[in-house]
Design goal:
This protein is mainly alpha-helical. Helices cover 70% and strands 0% of the residues. The longest helix is centred in the last third of the chain and has 26 residues.
Length: 73
């Protein structure tokens, strides 16, 4: 980056990317773990953080303010 402040959309996308990466890492490590609670960790921690990341990303796409106005037409 060149020192410019992040916009709200960039912050939301970074948060969603971090949640997705965390969810993927939890799911990979829970697949290597052979214990009955591995499924709970896989589904609850990994799945919910990935779902939260996806929802934050989709919300950031939908909540973009409209910068183009039709005042000229």
């Amino acid at each position: 980056m060149n020192g410019e402040p992040l916009t709200i959309m960039e912050k939301r996308i970074r948060i969603s990317g971090s949640l997705l990466l965390f969810g993927l890492l939890v799911e990979v490590f829970s697949l290597l773990w052979s214990h009955p609670t591995a499924f709970i960790v896989f589904f609850v921690v990994g799945g919910l953080s990935m779902a939260a990341g996806i929802l934050i990303f989709l919300y950031s796409l939908v909540s973009i303010p409209n910068s183009h106005s039709n005042k000229d037409t």
